[in-house]
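1st attempt posting a full record on here, be nice pls
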Amino acid sequence: MSHKPGLSYIVEVKALLQRHVYTEDTDGSVVCTLPPEYCEFGGTAKKCKEWLEKSHPDMHEKLYSEEAVAATLSTLSLDAQKRAAKDSQKKEAKAAAAEAKAAETKAQAQVLIKRVERNKRKYVTAVSGLEAHGMDLKKVAKEWGKKFATGSSVTKTASGGEEVVVQGDNSDEIFDWVVDVAGVPEANVDCIEDKKKKGA
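the predicted structure (as tokens):
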């Protein structure tokens, strides 16, 4: 005999699912997948709070207004309040440090565009380092395949990383795309040519 959940349980689950909002960064990437009430337990509380204030001001007011914070703190003992404040500061500092480190890594990351000669004046263009700038390699490969009307795929490199390989010599067009569309600084993009060794 199967047990059916009660109506109140179903209503509660539906309400929770309706409140489950995905926090998105300025570039559209998902920052947090927790419901807004639980963002404080994740590592991106500051970003979530800013996003919520901009995207859902009514919910932000409900969760982070002075009255809401005071009501939450009033249920805690004095020691628990001190611990909560200390934990909150630690989490914010940790999130800020992680954000700064990610920005520094992104600023230093190089995108390498390599024109590789296959045989008798036939080339492929291999591009590595895109993932460090937050790009989805499969989406980029698909977009370039359409843009250049040629084959484009994600392949493994000898070092264990991944690169996008595009059929044909598209290095100049890819350079322009990486700088103009993806917004990678020109100083972080390198173009090299990899010629096939001549047989003896």
